[in-house]
Amino acid sequence: MLRARIVLTLYILLLMLPIYWLVNMSLKTNTEIVSGLTLWPHNLTFENYRRIFTDPSWYSGYLNSLQYVVLNTVLSIALALPAAYAFSRYRFVGDKHLFFWLLSNRMAPAAVFALPFFNLYSAIGLFDTPLAVALAHCLFNVPLAVWILEGFMSGVPREIDETAYLDGYSFSHFFVKIFTPLVASGIGVTAFFCFMFSWVELLLARTLTSVDAKPIAATMTRTVSASGMDWGLLAAAGVLTILPGALVIWFVRNYIAKGFALGRV
Amino acid sequence: MGLVLDKVSRHVGGHAHIENVSLTLERGSLNVLLGPTLSGKTSLMRLMAGLDTPSAGRILVDGVDVTGRHVRERSVAMVYQQFINYPSLSVYENIASPLRVARRPKDEIDRKVREAARLLKLDPYLQRTPQQLSGGQQQRTAIARALVKEAQLVLLDEPLANLDYKLREELREELPKIFAATGAVFVYATTEPAEALLLRGNTATLWEGRLAQFGRTPDVYRRPANLTSARVFSDPPLNTMRVHKRGLQIVLATGEHGPARGVLAELPDDDYTIGFRADHLHLERPHADAVALRGVVAVSEITGSESFVHIDLPRTDGGQFGGGADRWVAVTRGVLEVEPGERIECFIDPRRLFVFGHDGRLAAAPPLVMAA
Lengths: 265, 372
Fold this sequence. Notes:
Shape of chain B: elongated
CATH architecture of the largest domain in chain A: Orthogonal Bundle
Largest interface: A-B, 16 and 23 residues
CATH topology of the largest domain in chain A: MetI-like fold
Number of helices of chain A: 13
Oligomer: heterodimer
Helix content of chain B: 10-25%
CATH topology of the largest domain in chain B: Rossmann fold
């Protein structure tokens, strides 16, 4: 028992080390970072964070990212809800093939789609807008959302649908009032995964934006080349990039296990 | 008037789930659909409800053809074998659901929900969610919802199958009374002959998607129209044996023969199948006219108040009976200890047999006064 605890503690320490180091760096001055090894900030400073929150070229990166990520999550779930319901409730010609084909979209490398998306969005004036990135990310997230939601929906007995119709519910009334609450945890898990995939995706987000909708990940990489190595600032930006994901995971932590149990996550 | 099924069939992927069923169910009547699993009870109910559409035939309610009409536009309530409620709503809201959708006034909803809850002993649980209830309470919630709707057609698909013994007895007695007052067509599906007899009303015996017989429950029990109906309406399984009648002689599949007596006496010469239920296979000679047969005990089950003895009766080799054995079941009162493999003598009463012809139809039956 004690040995297991020690092993586990060591393992978690090992996992947490890079994150601790990032936080550690973000609270140091550049001089302290480059001058040698210190295990904790000797000259504690919040200057790095202050700069990010006051400099528009920095914080707009977060706002842009949040915009397309939220937009993408809402779009993906709105599209996937009816699709997943159809896959879970109806049998139609080629339904299984279509379901698998949807999933196989996730296997295509983003680089393949970067060029056609760039060309297409430039042509129709979507280039450098949050909507452009949100739509591009739907390519990966809608299939994922359909896949996860279908698992949750198939766990709801079909008889509940029928009972609702027998009671006189219309389809839309039933779907909103009865069905959606039953798959609420599934929607939560789906939202989390859509959020995370969209948040960490770099290639499409950077290719499809230039100035107005530049995501935070792109801001970080460009700063490296522009102004040398501002270690502390980059570390602070890194911490702030991890935070939203950590927050979302906190809210859906109870449902994720259920998603795993369904074999869909 | 009531519900009429007119030559209704349903085929799914080349399989006949329901084949040419015609039924007339009167308003205010209690109708039992009796049949083993996969006999088409649920399929038939889904057709009655309008959840499925028939491949052929028509469904009429009070003379109006409703065949293709959506469930929402029909007046149907249904209770499933599984406990189906809306998990996200409270018990109160579950029961109120059909009334809310119909936009009834608030005070009427409240009155009806409380009345139904009182009738089904759910009053203390109205604010809970279905998950917080026991199985029996969940099923009572589903029944209460079906009740408040005051539908013209109430379908109960093995509603008590997943409940414990005591609750079953209680509800089985109450359900027909509760719904009788509504004047609806009441349909109750079950796999158990005993349940059909306890519910009385009418019984439709189903076998492999076909209707074997429909009539008053005691009539169907005492006068099965055919071998299938008799088999369906028998638990333990119906004892059967093929026989030849040659003049005044009767030859049994076991090779024994004797004078044709009882119900067999008046029949023309032919091949027949005799059938009778376990309570008419005796292990002690009931009277002088009884026919004695020798068999081997296969299984013996003792429930305490009754013992079921399964007996193999080997057929004669060659001839038309073609070897093998008939398995019969005898039920006796009390505990009877016999070992498998033991030789045993059993007795049938020639006056208490059902006799079925080649086509499976009833050819002769005991007079009703006797066949209690």
